[in-house]
């Protein structure tokens, strides 16, 4: 596993040169690029250690994009402070944790006082303000996408511009785990018992944490669907989910960690691991929580061979008969299951709806067309009301045609 330590301010190369004269260090996009290029082939894991108060916005975004473009599994640990642009870099990782006494701060971007040593007109200041607001919304969008937290709550926290503890950071989704202290007691006769208890308790806590995480994930999914339906009913915009599910050809589901409306792509966080064949024929390969490959549909050969040993002998007829009987049972069960199973086309259509935005998108896409009122015809004069043709709907006409065809076959 390659380890990237972000312990200095995030700076461009030009700013780093200025800092160098003051005997100050910094981390730039170039530093991260060189680090990634130096990772040995076959090493698909990056450990990101953070104790950083932030830095330049554009340089930070470049670092985030570079890290995510590697397709490697990124695990981040907050070892001290994680503030400002460093929080954006933190969220480049799919697995995020922190030590108990670490701190996190998010705030609105700003221009430092020493960067405004120039003459500015009103138009210049308005342009600077617009640029800051754009950066603010961009950061908010990324926070919401990666944490799943409420946008208004995150915006309020940015306005406060203050550090929060790791319990609060975990509630908001910036981290998933708080690393417990591993140091033992000072010594004494109970040290061994204490260490054994801590180990067992740690295992239990990890199991409970995994169970809780699954439950919270399911709760969020149900809540998200309920909010989407409510928003549509009220005529409001539905909240954008941070993941969606796709049906596989076998009837299982995979979760793609990105907003609805975006197709799955290599590098996206997803689960569970494995090779998943989709209804459209493509195969999505997930390893270590990341999509590593998306293969197009391929024609499958017959595999060759005649399935026999060429001798014509049956060494175990009883076992073969039992196997054939079991195959017959399974074929019967499969036939019953297929009656209730979705067809490949149905699964493919459901996947397209999920990618497009799910139930909320489908409701918005319904047609409001109303056909014009039908004009009934009357019989010719002299026929009278007795012989008047009673108007029929298209369904009734179709039923009559089918009945007539059935009588002909009899």
UniProtKB/TrEMBL annotation:
Q: Where is the composition biased (Low complexity)?
A: 312-321
Give start-end positions of Polar residues composition bias.
Answer: 197-214
Ranges for region Disordered: 190-218, 251-321, 368-397
Name the source's superkingdom: Bacteria
Q: Which residues form the signal peptide?
A: none
Which UniProt keywords are given for this protein, alphabetically ordered? Cytoplasm, Hydrolase, Protease, Serine protease
Query: Which organism is this protein's natural source?
Result: Alistipes shahii
Name the SUPFAM superfamilies for this protein.
ClpP/crotonase
Q: Which InterPro entries match?
A: ClpP (IPR001907), ClpP/crotonase-like_dom_sf (IPR029045), ClpP/TepA (IPR023562)
Asked if the Swiss-Prot or TrEMBL record annotates the protein with the keyword Chaperone, the reply is no
What GO cellular-component annotations does this UniProt entry give?
endopeptidase Clp complex
Q: Give any single GO term for biological process.
A: protein quality control for misfolded or incompletely synthesized proteins
The name under which this protein is listed is ATP-dependent Clp protease proteolytic subunit
Q: Does the keyword Hydrolase apply?
A: yes
Q: Which Pfam families match?
A: CLP_protease
**Family from the record:** Belongs to the peptidase S14 family.
For bias type Basic and acidic residues, the affected ranges are: 273-295
In Gene Ontology terms, what is one molecular function of this protein? Answer: serine-type endopeptidase activity
């Amino acid at each position: 596993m390659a380890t990237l330590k972000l312990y200095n301010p995030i700076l461009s190369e030009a700013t780093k040169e200025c800092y160098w004269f003051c005997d100050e260090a910094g981390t730039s996009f170039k530093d991260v690029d060189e680090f990634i290029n130096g990772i040995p082939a076959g090493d698909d894991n990056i450990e990101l250690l953070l104790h950083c108060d932030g830095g330049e916005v554009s340089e930070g975004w470049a670092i985030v994009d570079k890290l995510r473009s590697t397709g490697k599994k990124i695990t981040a640990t907050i070892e001290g402070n994680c503030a400002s642009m460093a929080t954006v870099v933190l969220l480049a990782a799919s697995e995020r944790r922190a030590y108990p006494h670490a701190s996190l701060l998010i705030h609105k971007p700003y221009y430092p006082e020493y960067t405004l040593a120039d003459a500015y007109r009103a138009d210049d200041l308005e342009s600077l303000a617009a640029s800051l607001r754009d950066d603010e919304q961009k950061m908010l969008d990324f926070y919401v996408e990666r944490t799943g937290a409420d946008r208004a709550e995150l915006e309020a926290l940015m306005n406060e511009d203050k550090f929060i503890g790791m319990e609060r950071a975990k509630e908001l989704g910036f981290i998933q785990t708080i690393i417990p202290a591993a140091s033992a007691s000072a010594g004494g006769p109970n040290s061994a018992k204490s260490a054994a208890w801590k180990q067992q308790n740690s295992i239990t806590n990890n199991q409970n944490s995994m169970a809780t995480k699954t439950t919270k994930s399911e709760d969020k999914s149900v809540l998200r669907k309920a909010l989407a339906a409510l928003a549509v009913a009220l005529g409001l915009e539905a909240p954008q989910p941070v993941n969606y599910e796709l049906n596989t050809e076998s009837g299982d589901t995979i979760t793609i960690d990105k907003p609805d409306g975006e197709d799955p792509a290599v590098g996206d966080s997803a689960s569970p691991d494995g090779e998943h064949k989709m209804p459209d024929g493509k195969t999505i390969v997930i390893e270590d929580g990341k999509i590593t490959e998306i293969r197009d549909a391929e024609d499958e050969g017959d595999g060759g061979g005649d399935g026999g040993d060429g001798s014509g002998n049956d060494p175990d007829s009883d076992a073969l008969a039992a196997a054939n009987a079991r195959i017959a049972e399974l074929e019967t069960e499969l036939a019953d299951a297929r009656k209730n199973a979705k067809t490949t086309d149905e699964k493919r259509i459901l996947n397209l709806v999920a990618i497009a935005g799910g139930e909320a998108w489908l409701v918005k896409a319904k047609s409001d067309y109303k056909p014009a009122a039908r004009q009934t015809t009357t019989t010719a004069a002299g026929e009278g009301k007795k012989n008047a043709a009673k108007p029929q709907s298209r369904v009734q006409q179709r039923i009559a045609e089918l009945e007539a065809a059935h009588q002909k076959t009899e």
